[in-house]
Structure formats: structure tokens, C-alpha cells
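To: structure subgroup
Subject: Chain for Friday's discussion

All,

I'm putting the inputs and outputs inline so they're searchable in the archive.
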Amino acid sequence: MTTDPLMTALEPIIKSSIDTALEKADFENLVKTEIAKAMGDIPQKTLTIIDTKGVTKEMKMVHKQFEMLLKLVSTKRPILMKGEAGV
């Protein structure tokens, strides 16, 4: 919190102006559009998986090492995965 009287007087006006601009800008759609544009520039890899029952599933946008992980898992040997919680 500032003790500057001018800033104290301007703060609610500035906040209101920013809030109004964000509401008018349809911020959520702007973000979705930018994400879609950025994702279009990333090379996509499609991985086709056939499970033990013969069911085929195509997976798009998988991690670059996902195929290797599937191969390792299929060996039924213990695998150590290192990273942040939830990875």
C-alpha cells in the first residue's frame, strides 16, 4: 500500500480501467487463440498403440519419450521415473 496521495487517488481509477479493458478484450478467447497458434508450430507425433486385446488407439501430442517409456513398461521390469511430484 502506498502513502503517496496521488497514487492513492489514481489506484481505483487505474484498476477499474484495467478491469474494463480485460472484460472487453475477451481475454479467455485471446489466450486460447494464441495457444492454438503456438501449438500449430510444434511438430506433432502420432503414436498408434495396440493393447493386449487388439484394440488400436491413436494418441496425439504425446511426450517425446512416451514411446520409449511404453517399450520399457512392456518388458515388465521395474522403471524409475525421476521428476517433480505428479510427473
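Points worth raising on Friday:
The chain has three helices and two strands.
Residues 9 and 25 are 26 Å apart (CA to CA).

D.
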